Amino acid sequence: MPSGILSFLIFFPIISGILIGIFSENKFLKINVKKVSLLITGIQMILSILVYFSYDKALGGFQFIDYFDSWIPFEAFTARYIVGIDGLSAPLILLTGILGFCSVIASMNIQLRQKEYFMWLLALQGVVTGVFASLDLLLLFVFWEAELIPMYFLISIWGSGRAHYSAMKFLIFTLTSGALLLIGIVSLYFATGTFTMFDIAELGLYGIVNSNFSIAIPAVFIFFIFFIGFAIKLPLFPVHSWLPDAHTDAPTAVSIMLAGVLLKMGGYGLLRINVDIFNYIDPSILTDLAPYFAIIGAFSVIYGALLTIQQTDLKRLIAFSSVSHMGYVVLGFSSYGAFASVGSTEGLGGTALQLFTHGTITGLAFLLVGLTYERTHTRYIPHLGGLVNKMPLITTFFVIAGFASLGLPGLSGFVAELMIFIGTFKMGSLWAISTVVAVFGVVLAAAYTLWMIQRAYFGEGVKQDSPVAKIFDQLDDLNKLELLSVLILTATIVVVGIYPAIITDVLNIGVGEIFTR
Amino acid sequence: MITLNDILLLSPEIALVIGAFVVIIVDLFSSKKSFSAIFASVFLAISAILSIVLTTNLISYNDPSGSSIINVLSIDKYSLFLKSLILVSGLSISVCGINLLSKELKSKGEFWALFLISITGMTLLTSTTEMITAWVALELTSLPVIGMLALNQKKYSLEVALKYLILSATSSAIILMGIAYIYGVSGSTFFSEISTIDTALSGKFFFKDPSNILILFGALLLISGASFKIASFPFFSWVPDVYQGAPTIVTIYLSVVSKIAGLSIIIRILFDAINNSMISEWAVYLSIMAAVSMTFGNIMALRQSNIKRLFAYSTIAHAGYILIGLASSEPDSLNSSNFAGIQSSVFYIVAYAITNLTAFLSILSISREINSFNIEKYKGAGIKLRFQSIILSISLISLLGIPATIGFMGKAFIFSSAISNNLMWLALIGILNSVISAYYYIRIIKFMFIDAPEDQESKSYSSDLNTKIITSFGTILILMLGLAPAMLLGIVEGVVNILQ
Hints:
The complex is a heterodimer of chains A (517) and B (500).
Chain A: H1 5-22, H2 27-53, E1 63-74, E2 77-85, H3 90-105, H4 114-133, H5 137-146, H6 148-158, H7 163-192, H8 219-233, H9 242-249, H10 252-281, H11 283-310, H12 314-333, H13 338-341, H14 346-376, H15 392-406, H16 412-425, H17 429-456, H18 468-471, H19 480-498, H20 501-514
Antiparallel strand pairs in A: 1-2
Helix pairs in contact in A: 1-2, 1-4, 2-3, 2-4, 3-4, 3-10, 3-14, 3-19, 4-5, 4-6, 4-10, 5-7, 6-7, 7-8, 7-9, 8-10, 9-12, 10-11, 10-12, 10-14, 11-12, 11-17, 12-14, 12-16, 12-17, 14-15, 14-16, 14-19, 14-20, 15-17, 16-19
Chain B: H1 4-9, H2 11-29, H3 34-60, E1 67-69, E2 73-75, H4 77-100, H5 109-127, H6 131-150, H7 157-186, H8 191-194, H9 210-230, H10 239-245, H11 248-273, H12 279-301, H13 307-327, H14 341-370, H15 381-384, H16 386-400, H17 406-420, H18 424-450, H19 465-483, H20 486-497
Antiparallel strand pairs in B: 1-2
Helix pairs in contact in B: 2-3, 2-5, 3-4, 3-5, 4-5, 4-11, 4-14, 5-6, 5-11, 6-7, 7-9, 9-11, 10-11, 10-13, 11-13, 11-14, 12-13, 12-18, 13-14, 13-17, 13-18, 14-16, 14-17, 14-19, 14-20, 16-18, 16-19, 17-18, 17-19
């Protein structure tokens, strides 16, 4: 891969988006904006797959580094433009590439203010790639916050229901999370004198890891600032309330990006900063607090699942299931100490894998819900039923997504959750109890997933008083383009389920390096 | 003796004063109303160019201390930098005023003459190194503003002018009181002599020495009085009413130019006149001022429906952010390992000036077309006045402090300086306040771009060309310096260094 490939992945969609915005009066763009966006994200997807597979596993460490030293070149405040990927972030770059393409396919029926829509959607993809690729904390923060503006417009202009309210709620919650991050990042800077996260030997850079840590602010305070910031984004009980609203009211493509990629920023942050960096600064913080995180994680799993069962809106149901699934991330995160006590990193590896698998599974589920909604014009479960007769393909793939989500062996969700359970159970005591509790989350997931599919897609058909009854005969199945996006996601789920090493080989390098820095 | 060199150094001010007289004379003989604004712009431009040339000259001759004129004015890098900022902001306002003012104002010649005189006061304020001169310069800035407010000839303009007059007089009295205290202890009104008095006692024994207490008390009175200029706690109650009732040009002038001048004299007093050993004492007071201004401004702005009033509260909040930087300027933090607060304050005032000027000029241009300052009436402005609305949105995002804008860099530096000086609580209050501010800034963007317009009338709207050009420049600066702040930060660092 040529150098500069990561910068290209970040800025290509952003600049294309801006150009679409500037030349919105152009006749060619007016007709072809959808094709152009499809082309751009297609290139993105192919490049991100290439980048992922050309990550040199034997070499490890950070690769594809792009570096520009004089972004803010002051002795008292030095921030660099530096991007690169390691085993932890490479799968997430891949995930962003795949979901970006699928989300553009999911937007083919957008009619309102098309060029603006694709401008924001493309910009969003570039910015999120930037979050995963940044190796400088201030740069990471810039991308983290910049993601807000596209999201706000996408939800509030093209959303449905109480879109303004949900968009504002999303904005305020995420800004709060960003505010906490900024405090944490700047505190780390003054403790260590650098924003660069890790040592980059070939550039002669020293990172936060391995620098002298000295500050009047206690490290545990900084740790919590980061933890709360990421928990809001993840989201974790009790700061999850923005998620169902934002998901339900967002357009399909944005739900896919939100659940598939944006939530992963929170999980990635936990692994990258609260585990990776704090493993150097003060490992005892995480080992001391880990049992409590296990409890919070398990509680979030069960609480999210119980809320999910009660939902009657297809999209809201999947949104709440995300809260439950992100609970596993925090549970796996709490098994940090396993490396020291039993010498295993399954828990953290499972967490990282869960980020990837949940991205594809929930992305697929939201895509299918969106496609169903486009046809039936309702997501209210009691109004649906018997859709399998008219949409056999959508139903089939929804069943696959559902099974993957509840952790059926052979599909990707199973591998991630199993790794997390093994990792945390090994730790014994409170972790084991939390794991046992969290396993019931899988049972509940089976309950809500299967029950939902039963009611909406199978069953005896649409009731007579339902609005769908009138249009039931005109319902059609997937077209070719939609089938392509569904197939891409399904393939990812099945391949990772059957042969998890395709992701875990890379992930394990990243997780292993946490403890060798 | 005043030499030729002194006249050269004072040439920006001299150009302004000549300009004020020319504008009045031109107004007597010309029938065309926009003439006086054009003449005012020309003289402001001359003055700005002179000031910028002097700045670059000083930088190239590497003479950071500058020269002093009859001991009361110091023309140095610091004063010339802020002077240039004031003059360029003033120039932008007057250029936009050429076409935009006619609706709001009946008489023009006097208005622009007063405008130039007031700016003269502000440029003098940046370079004063003596208490009485500072006081005279402060009065020179406020008195013409009273005239500018009252010239509006609407029924509430007298009320607004009177309000401004009374509070301005009160703050002047308080400043005089502060000067008296400091003179009483030090026996001098010159900054350089005041700073040399012995304040060896510090820390635990600080308050044992009555002269310390008196100087500190005097300094606090001075800062409180000057807070009238930057619209922060404790003298901010005039801001909402005056901003709303004043002609918009005057509102912009008060919210941008006046704030730069006020900040320049506060920095001079704190870092030039008052001995460094007192920093930890007055920093506490500044932190309180900052916290109250931010919280009050942001919370009050949430429920405003008039955009000028909303911006009045938002400028109070921004004054609070600026003060955070000053509050976190412990002397040992000025070495290179920590981030200097005063530097971040000066950076922030530049960021604020560019952003607020762009935002306010766009508001003026949009509101003039849709004939209302009510935010609800902004519905659909994104379609009717697309260009100006996009510019306003970018500047609002910058005021909110989202990355890729200069506002973000300003806030990042401000909060960094607070954290590096162990003022974590102040940084937390500030950062949560900036989250609150998202609600009202984004609400304006929502009205412009997301809500459908109320009326479907096909009237064609066009915004003013001058405003378009100037706000475009502002937007380019907002984005450019937001992505690569190094250049401006370098200048600011050089400018601030001479104060220590």
